[in-house]
Write the structure tokens for this entry.
Amino acid sequence: MKKLFTLIFIGLCFVSTVYADKLSEHKKVIDPKLNNADAYFNRGLSYFNSKQYQKAIVDYTRSIELNSQNARTYINRASVYYQLGQYQNAIEDCNKAIEIDPKNALAYHNRGCVYRDMGQYQKAIEDCNKVIKLNPDFIIVAYYYRGIVYYMSGQYMRAIDDFNRAIKLNPGISEVYCNRGAVYEKLGQHQKAIDDFNKSIELNSGYALAYCNRGASYGQLGQYQKAVEDLSKATNLDPKCGDAYYNFACFYSLRGKKSQAFFNLKIAIDLDKKYKNMAKTDKDFKNLWDDPDFKKLTK
């Protein structure tokens, strides 16, 4: 069964506001005759929260025009650019926020997240190191985040060390155990991985990704009934859990159940096109590679 495990990422954070976060209220605040940077900031935040990203950019840009020395506005606009996949713009806004406020841990954290998604892992780690030095309130997030980057860059023992640090500081965060379990799986330590996924589920019984990961671990150990039960639980909790459907497809392919393999693989591909290329090189599907239906599905 395919070893497909999911880590939980931390995205960019944004600066909230003390004002009521209701779009209708912020629309009333802005008088076009007034140069009110905070009003545009607040409405930009509301647009961001309602996923109206282009409108959020317009308002944050207007706020910056009225007050170019507010680091939090650049941080928030960077978060919008990140959501839109405009990574270079996000980096530039984080840089500007750091120029204005060199001790702003949030700006370093957000820039590190962008570097991570750009594959610039060393820069991401350096930004996380800066966060750890600057703000003790961010230290758990920083260890957790740096652990993810270490994992992504193949530094598995360092990843475990950082997840251990985060757990020592706060043993009640389900996601940290889930991520550490994924690292243990990468190292072939299946039982340690299952123990961590168990703890993650104990802390959050509705955590679909923990079930998905544990199911994959059971598959590696040949405990197929448990694997099926966990993957089914994952898809029931989160019908958009693509990794669970993909692992189901692998499971059925290896057992020669072609129709069930195609059914689950199609769901996975409909959720994320990345599974097409994965399936074409995944030996779990080797017996299906020459099948016309497989070729059509992964075309």
Notes: Residues 1-170 form a domain with the Serine Threonine Protein Phosphatase 5, Tetratricopeptide repeat fold (CATH 1.25.40.10). Residues 16-28 have pLDDT under 50 and may be disordered.
